[in-house]
Amino acid sequence: MPTKIEKDGVTGRETTGHEWDGLKELNTPLPKWWLWTFYASIAFAVVWMVLYPSLPFWGGTTGWIAREAIVAEVAEANARNAPMMARLRAATPEQIAADPEMRAFALAGGRVAFANNCAACHGAGGQGGSGFPALVDDDWLWGGSLAAIHQTVAHGIRNTEDEAARTSVMPRFGADGMLTNPQIGDVAEYVLSLSGRSSDPAAVDRGRTIFAENCASCHGDNGRGNREFGAPNLADQVWLYGGGKADIVAMVRNPRLGVMPAWEGRLDPAVINMLTVFVHSLGGGE
Amino acid sequence: MTSVEAPHRAKADRPPEAPTSAAEQPLYAARQKVYPKRVFGKVRSVKWAVLTLCLALYYIVPWIRWDRGPGVPDQAVLVDIANARIFLFWIEIWPQEIYFLTGALILGAFGLFAVSSLFGRLWCGFTCPQTVWTDLFMFVERWIQGDRNARMKLDQGPHDTNYWVRKSLTHGVWLLIAAATGGAWVMYFVDAPTVTMQILTGHASAQVYFFVALFTGFTYLLAGWAREQVCTYMCPWPRFQAAMLDENSLVVTYRDWRGEPRGKLKAEGVGDCVDCFACVHVCPTGIDIRDGQQLECIGCGLCVDACDSVMSKLGRPKGLVAFETLKNLSASAAATAGMAPGPDRFKAGMAARQMPRFVRPRTLMYAGALTAVALVMLGAFLMRSTLNVTVLRDRAPLFVRLSDGAVRNAYTIKIVNKTRDEAPLALVLQAPEGFHMTVQDVEDDAQGRPVLHRRADGIAQYRVFVTVPHGQRIAEDTPVSFRLLDAQGRAVASQSSNFLGPKP
């Protein structure tokens, strides 16, 4: 309750009438501009609440939300790209790679699609890892031409969902008892000799015959591999699971067989074409 | 502000509504409407000339054409935000060179400081956009509503048809000028002929309409309504102009040593000032220059013309209000202290004046700073390279081992070409023996070097592979560099990088 309202001599204003230990407060009115800005903001808020979805049960007279704007923008971007995507869908990877405009678009789109779909296994730059082939080098398990890459991307490898998936099986020479441990050691030594890294000539000789009987049917007489079976070239310097003796022994004993999903049906055919052209351009395309 | 206190009318004698009066006032100062009277004279003529020049530049410059070739804007002065270029006649600034704009602004600032220290508030009184447009709007107001007395009568009289017609006409013309101003602003950012047609036919983008509306609104508000309130309350310049002036700067002052004591024309023993209030009536900010240096005085000098015309009518020497230095003012005051009003006092006072010292430490420092910044900018501009090459080495993976055991690094090379010259360039690698370079998707020239094509006024990108054969011993990190050669074999750009390999 204000007890004693006084008038201040200096400013001409009244006090609020309260006193705290001798301290009094001037009852200065709020500045008009501040007050009217405040009223305007209230009016603005009311108008806003009517126009836009602001309450749980109210969609607003315009019903506009930011998400719709984004959806519209994405649709507009897709519409802008639609003619080029149609061309990419209809063309073969060879035609795309030959046409500069389509190739530029495919490389740019392929880079994005690769990052979204392939980088998880094959690495951000296609460098691969243990068990995931590197796509930047010139060593291909199933072929590095555009057609071969397209087949691999579209149908995958050893997956159960696509009938056209590439598939092959390396026998479990050790686990199934087809070769004894010393034999496995010898054939591993022979395989090392194919890339010039062996150290035991006697073992290499023994391993040669074992190789000819067991391995050459898939890996080729000279160990240069066979792309029909996805059998790697054992005579080069690139190794999917490691190239040391222990790695080779482990592989012969109990082979690890990589699986790649089929992207046909998951990705637009145009995107698969773009990925094909992109992977082919990474540095090792044939 | 200065060490010299110019004597003026005592505080107790000033009218209570003046900002500098001594009367008790509420902290909120209600606005006193200012009705500047028309004035004729040298200063007014100069002001008109400067106004015409500034407005002409502002409205006409966007329309100047400069042919730069096909596909490029042909406007001489254009800030092309959409394409990230600033065009200034033959100069083209890329975004990474935005510091040229910074330098220009710094030059402007130092130029302003230098001019202020020499000649006072010339910017405020003659060239400031607020002053120019307010002056223009006041001219329109005077043309439609009449001079000072007619306007005051109109405002105080009944709000009849005549009142409304005149007021709406004034505001209508103001809005037209403001719209032209807003439109001209946008023309510095979008091609002028194109955007004018678009605005008039209703096809301009929302941003264009928004900015035109924004600048129209603000021109109308600031020049039509706020006027001197901007200078007194809103603008920061008045508040630190005082730091740039000193007793040797030319400022608009009242020579009180010859004007005081004020009195009527026929009275005895009075100074030259007859208290006609001409100086107050013509002032666009509504102050009395006889009160001395004030924040509100924008230094336009119209009071000089007003007083001069009154003095010449009375047969007295001009210059009672003049552009003067405060040093001279105090020298004249000292020389005439105690003298009786009359021609002797006038002679003694004027004799005590000296040529203002234009060359002094303050002005030298400003001039020096101005010159230094200008030289740096000129140097940077003359030395800017129009062809750059950047080399980005692949990081995923750092290196690739090929099937024959060779080690390969991949690079993305970008050629930044700021000219329209599209002559091809040959790429060469400078690296130890055995390093071999190939570039994807390009042909080789006669000497077996890859030929890279540049894009006019753009960036061209290429993928480059550098390979070291199997068996060659290389360090983990080998420095290499790439050079671009022109048709004559001269190196026009180069960039160093490194080649990474496995741990040896």
In the residues of chain B, how many domains can be counted?
3
Q: What is the β-strand count of chain B? A: 14
Mean pLDDT of chain B: 90
Oligomer: heterodimer
Major beta-sheet overview of chain A:
2 strands, antiparallel
Structure, explained:
The complex is a heterodimer of chains A (286) and B (504). The termini of chain A are far apart. In chain A, helix 2 (66-90) packs across helix 11 (269-280) and helix 4 (100-117) crosses helix 11 (269-280). Chain A contains eleven helices and two strands, in the order E-E-H-H-H-H-H-H-H-H-H-H-H. In chain A, a hairpin with a 2-residue loop joins strand 1 (15-20) and strand 2. Chain A is 48% helix and 3% strand. The longest helix of chain A is centred in the first third of the chain and has 25 residues, at 66-90. Chain A is mainly alpha-helical and 286 residues long. Chain A is elongated and about 115 Å long. Among the domains of chain A are: 83-165 and 260-280, Cytochrome Bc1 Complex, Chain D, domain 2 (Orthogonal Bundle); 181-253, Cytochrome c-like domain (Cytochrome Bc1 Complex, Chain D, domain 2, Orthogonal Bundle). The mean pLDDT of chain A is 93. Chain B is α+β, with helices and mostly antiparallel strands. Chain B folds into three domains: 31-242, no CATH class; 246-351, no CATH class; 387-500, Immunoglobulin-like, CATH 2.60.40. Chain B contains 16 helices and 14 strands. Chain B has helices at 42-60, 99-119, 122-127, 129-145, 148-156, 161-187, 192-201, 206-226, 228-234, 237-244, 256-259, 278-282, 302-313, 326-335, 343-351, 361-383, and strands at residues 77-80, 85-88, 91-93, 250-254, 321-325, 387-393, 400-401, 407-417, 425-430, 436-439, 451-452, 458-468, 477-485, 491-500. In chain B, strands 6, 7, 8, 10 and 12 form a five-stranded antiparallel beta sheet that branches. A four-stranded antiparallel beta sheet of chain B has the order 11-9-13-14, with no helix packed on it. In chain B, strands 1-2-3 form a three-stranded antiparallel beta sheet, with no helix packed on it. In chain B, strand 2 (85-88) and strand 3 form a beta hairpin. In chain B, helix 14 (326-335) crosses helix 15. The longest helix of chain B has 27 residues, at 161-187. Chain B starts with 41 loop residues before the first helix and ends with a strand. The model of chain B is unreliable at 1-7 (pLDDT under 50). At the A-B interface, loops of A face strand 7 of B.
